[in-house]
Structures are given as structure tokens and as C-alpha cells.
Amino acid sequence: MERSKAQPYHHGQLREALLTSGRALLEEKGIRGFTLRECARRAGVSHAAPAYHFASIDDLLAELAARGFDELAAAMTAEADRSADKGAEDASTGRLMGQGVGYMAFAAGNPALFQLMFSREANRLDAPALAAAAEKVRALHAAAIEAVIPHASGEIKQRMADFAGASVHGFISLLLEGQIGGRDSSRALKARGLALLSAMAETVVRAGG
Amino acid sequence: MERSKAQPYHHGQLREALLTSGRALLEEKGIRGFTLRECARRAGVSHAAPAYHFASIDDLLAELAARGFDELAAAMTAEADRSADKGAEDASTGRLMGQGVGYMAFAAGNPALFQLMFSREANRLDAPALAAAAEKVRALHAAAIEAVIPHASGEIKQRMADFAGASVHGFISLLLEGQIGGRDSSRALKARGLALLSAMAETVVRAGG
DNA sequence: CCCTAATCTTGACGATGGAAAGAGGCGAAA
DNA sequence: TTTCGCCTCTTTCCATCGTCAAGATTAGGG
């Protein structure tokens, strides 16, 4: 009954295998090219096998998106910690920018998944786990802003959270969609991203004082 | 020429009709729910009729996206003009914010089309018309920034263009995806959007001087 | 040792995108 | 005017898709 690591019989870890193959497939073919059958094929099972683990293809996508949000939150926290450790003069501002770096890095590393997570389709699925995971990311944003401008009014904080979140999300989105820096090198793009984070942080700080 | 009862064998305006029904279908069903056959059905023709006008379903989507960019550019210019006419103290700053308002208004009015335009899928299609239309929107951004801070360095201008574009695009994207303002009223959301535009414009102005 | 229930396979259904072939109608050349 | 070519649309067909309904398989409790 209680198998901690889930050790079913025929395949073993079909659910995990489907999530793994599905994630790769998503990055390869994009949202429109994603098919459940190809997913099953890559996991080495028949086309109807996924039905037991996922009620529908949307269920699988929702789970992928939810895990993506978890991973995104982890990437943000990790990079924020790393930035804070560097011992900048202002730790909270460093964390804010670090979180932005983590956000962008995750998006750049998982462009199709990132798009799925923030897609209208994902929004349509009613998956509580997905909504909760997304909320966690938003909470990280709010907390980072709170740390930088703790004495500002609630309205200012909200507006700066809007602002910071929008800048970072918008920049990396436009970049991934090819709307920014067509022929620029990866190094140049990183510089542009960092410059954007600086301007964002400066605006937040100013609004708080 | 108009036979309302008996459909003529030759539709006459099938291409336009498909684009119209396709656009409505896109907003209704989303990118994943979009089908060529339903498109044809709504235009009153057989499922293979679109083949002559569009080489593939991606061709149709590319055309929809390209026209979306044209419309977006028009919305931006129109709203910028309207803002400038209001006689603000600084006309160029007013235009910049007005363009942002036009951008957001178009996105809010055509959420699915907007997402298609900025989707990885659209990016995959090699449609020169699409790329050109997107470039026109980017040029509008750059021009608005140029007008506000004409004496700044090229690098500053680029970074502020990044910043302005990212803020506006990110905010409206997150809003449409339900990541911002879950229970807020439409009025409150507009206020948040305007506040964001103010903060954005202020940052640009400060960076230029 | 066997029996139940969870897991996976096979097969089927309607729907999709696209190709192929045929039918219908417009307009230019005779 | 008549004829013929070409563009447009329909019909038919195919491989694939998601999902459902059965049947097969096997793990593990009784």
C-alpha cells in the first residue's frame, strides 16, 4: 500500500517518466506540437497508458506547469541567496536583483515550459496545485519588495511589486519571443538584462524613500 | 451578387472570411483549441477550402498575428495622439504614456490574439510580413523614447526602450494571464496600469537627464 | 496459493490537418 | 458566341490525435 517512492509494476515510475518525457517534448515541439501519444511513446508505453495517471492531456500540462512554478521559486530563492552572500552594500536590494536573475535564468533555460506556465491555456485549467505554486512565486516578489522598502505605504509597495514583476517578466518574455536583441550576443543580452534589473531596483528604492 | 440562401460555389472573399472567423475562434478557444476545420465551418465552406488561401494552419495563424501587429501599432499611435492632444505639460512624455495605454488596451481587447502574436509558436513561423509588422511596433517604442530623451546616449536610449517595453508588456501579460489583480475591479486595475506607466515614464525621464 | 485491484495493452470512435482527385464557374481567346 | 484553361471549392482518403471501453497482466494481501 505505502510505497514511498512509488514502485508500481509494469513500468515502475510511469507518472514521473511521463512528466520527464513531456517536459522534453514540450521544449522540442512547443505547446501546439505537444501530444500525449508521443509522450507515451517516449516513455516506452502504449498510447493509452497515461490515462490512469492523468485524467486528460490538460491534467499533464497542469502538472508540468505547477512543477515549473515550484522550480522557478527555487531558482529565484537560490539566486537571491547567492546575491546576498556576495556582500553587497544593500543586502535587500541585492536579493531583489538576484531574484530577478534567477527568474530570467529559469525562463531562459525552459522557454517553452515558461510560456506554458504563463499561458492563457494554463490559466483555463482549474488546478489548485497550479494556482498555489504560482502564488508562491508572487509571494516571493512581494517579500523582496517588502524587504527593500519596508516603510513605504501598502499602495506604493503594491505598485512597485507590479512594476518589478512586470519589468522582469516582460523583458525575459520579449527576449525569448525574439522581440528583443535579434543579433545580439548572449553576453550583450545578459548585460541588457542586468541593466534592466538595475534600473528596476533603483526605481523601487526611490519610490520607497 | 448576394445570395443569402444558396451559397455560391465560389465564395469570393474566403480569405477575409477565414481570417475573421479564425480571429473569433482564437479568442473563444485559445491557441490549443484552434482548428482549421472549425474555421472553415464558420465561414460556410468545406474543410479543405482554406488550403488554397493558406498553405497550412500555421500560415493562417501567421497572417492573423501579422494583422494583429498592424492593429496594435495603429492602436498605439491613435492613443498617443489622443494623449498629446490633451495638452500635457510635456507632450513627448504624454505620448509615451499614451502609447502604453494603447498597447494595453489592444491586449486587453484581444487577449488570445495578443498571446499568439508574442508566442513562441508565432516566432517559429518564418513569415516576413509577420516579422516586419512586429518590427514596426518596436520602432514605435524606440521613437517614443527618442522623443522623451533625445540627448541621451544610444545605450541609455536602448536600455530605456527595453525598460519601457518590458514594463508595459509584462504588466498587461501578467494581468491577462491572471497573475495580477485576481479580485480587483476593472477600475482598480486601470489605476494600477496607469500608476505603472507613470513610474515607467518617470524612470525614463530621469535616466535621460 | 490464489484473488483482487491497480496497471498496462489493444482496439475502436469521432475529429483533425493535409493530400489527391473531381466538380463548378469565371473570363480570356477563338 | 463558343470554347477552353485556370482558379476555386467539394469530396474522398489517410495518418494521427485524445479518449473510452474492453481485455490482459501482475503485484501483493488474504
Short description:
Chain A is mainly alpha-helical and 209 residues long. Chain A contains 10 helices and no strands.
Write the layout of secondary structure elements.
2 copies of one chain form a homodimer.
Chain A: H1 14-33, H2 36-43, H3 50-53, H4 57-85, H5 91-109, H6 111-117, H7 120-124, H8 128-148, H9 154-176, H10 186-208
Helix pairs in contact in A: 1-2, 1-4, 1-6, 4-5, 4-6, 4-8, 5-6, 5-8, 5-9, 5-10, 8-9, 9-10
The structure holds a DNA duplex (30 and 30 nucleotides).
Structure overview:
Two copies of one chain form a homodimer. With 209 residues, chain A is mainly α. Chain A folds into two domains: 1-54, Orthogonal Bundle (Arc Repressor Mutant, subunit A); 57-208, Tetracycline Repressor, domain 2, CATH 1.10.357. In chain A, 76% of the residues lie in helices and 0% in strands. Chain A has ten helices and no strands. Chain A has helices spanning 14-33, 36-43, 50-53, 57-85, 91-109, 111-117, 120-124, 128-148, 154-176, 186-208. In chain A, helix 5 packs antiparallel against helix 8 (128-148) and helix 8 crosses helix 9 (154-176). The longest helix of chain A has 29 residues, at 57-85. Chain A starts with 13 loop residues before the first helix and ends with a helix. At the A-B interface, helix 1, helix 6, helix 7, helix 9 and helix 10 of A face helix 1, helix 6, helix 7, helix 9 and helix 10 of B. The structure holds a DNA duplex (30 and 30 nucleotides).
